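Loading example: each entry is read as two labelled lines plus one structure line.
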Amino acid sequence: MKGKRQLTAVSGNHLKNKSLGKRIWQNWELYLFMAPALLYFLVFHYGPMYGIQIAFKNFIPSKGITGSPWVGFEHFERFFNSYYFWDLLWNTFSISFYELAIGFPLPIILALAFNEVRNGPFKKTVQTVTYAPHFISVVVMAGMIITFLSPSTGMIVRFIELLGMEPAAFLTDPAWFKTVYVLSGVWQSTGWGTIIYLAALSGVDPQLHEAAIVDGASRFKRMLHINLPTIVPTITIMLILNMGNILGLGFEKILLLQNSLNMEASDVISTYVYRAGLVNAQYSFSTAVGLFNSVVNVILLVTVNKIAKRTSENSLW
Amino acid sequence: MVTTLKESRGDKWFLVSTYIYLCLALIVVVYPLIYILSASISSPQDVNSGAMWLFPKNLTLDGYKLVFENPKIWNGYMNTIIYTALGTLLNLAVTLPASYALSRSDFVGRQLFMGFILFTMFFSGGLVPSYLLIKNLGLINSMGALILPVAASVWNIVVARTFFQSTIPKELQEAAHIDGCTNLRLFIRIILPLSAPIVAVMALFYGVGHWNSYFPSLIYLNDESKYPLQMVLRQILVLQEMSAETTGAAINGEVAMAMNSKAETASLIKYGVIVVSTLPIIAVYPFLQRYFVQGVMIGSVKG
């Protein structure tokens, strides 16, 4: 005990008494540890930020980023005035909010249900199985959607026929695209999404339950008034994170499910940036569109964070 | 859960409906998975007509034979294994030392570094500037384009940092320092051996990411022989299917030929290829589930 106290005293002292330079020098190896990561973020994340300036230029590959002439907000104006601007914006926001409305509460409900059930083989099985689709790649997922919804032989389509209903042309009818996108996402990620809430639920104080039982609260009431409020901070953080990513939604899956017939409902800002920028090589224009996207994202994130901070004291920063 | 004295009628009904709800969730998730597995070993006529609805009917292994005979799939498989192995090694080499450094409270400037890294989570240069950067670095059509731009993820660094902070006792580091142990030795000899769980979690997270990734190869690779499995899958599952079923346009490639001549063979290939590509992950997943879950939970402790 005495030895330990001395030890902490020693280390406390050497921290306090040493100058900044000495404290840095003492841990010089940690800077070495940090170096690869810093280099990586500098090159591959801050590097592209330098390239954002071509959104305000007419990028000519032979002249390079610095050599190309400035054009101001021309590309932004062209985008805002184009006839597809409102369509892109509408699709992006409507798919995001649709996904948020359906996909966000479901993991919470499932986690609350898991929490009610006794730990045993049944619970373990359901958890293992519902987590599994998370590991299916987006390409296979798109392949499964396409196969299952195939008009002639698809499993889901036949099932709907079995129920005596007329199946829709799910992948070629624009009216169905968003539902297909959102529901397949629910299938893939609801189970996995419960983990974070289960972690939060494990922190519920059992004494609260005991007291509530004594007071005669039913299971349902306890779930509603004890379990749910406990995970509200986690829910808030997840909601903020989701909002901050609202315009960057499942781009890869949309791209894979997109075809000329459902384009009207499936074209979102990010797929448009891909097509205009990389497929049609309009570098400057699509960088401008992409920048618009990022800026809106940041604004959303900051706003939601601020609202959360003011109303519930839970926030990212 | 808390043991109750006696459950009321309402409580029992609530519990029963919870079980029913969970059973429904189980069926909804597991049915498509079983269906694919069964379809991959059933006769395609039965699959397409709906005669096969749960268990395999008229067993056939032709689908797998076709999949394994396809040189493109083999090649993609090999490429994916190489990309995954090298990519994950690089991920660990970048992530672990950095997260450890960031976990040390006596590391001057850690807040600054953390801010520098976190900022990239919320703002990025976007697709085209990233593409131009890769192009300027001369990485187009090389393995570097697939593994260097994803050498680390902010989220995983935060997760690993939280782990180091919460599980490695500070006294251990102080004692080692007093004994004259350098940071490098401390990290390799003491910290890493104590951190097996987080190393496993990181390797799994990154590994699955590499295994499932397709978009970087779509934009950075133009040589088909370098395609990872997911790109081959995209050709078989998404492109061919879409063109055959929705537009009726002419399709090319050997798979397409098989589709045109024998539509049934094509459907066999589809299910077989889904199983073959997903199986490695789904097969090891129940054994590694604990680690995956642990990883998410560590990350959730401090947002």
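Confidence is low (pLDDT under 50) at residues 241-252 of chain B.
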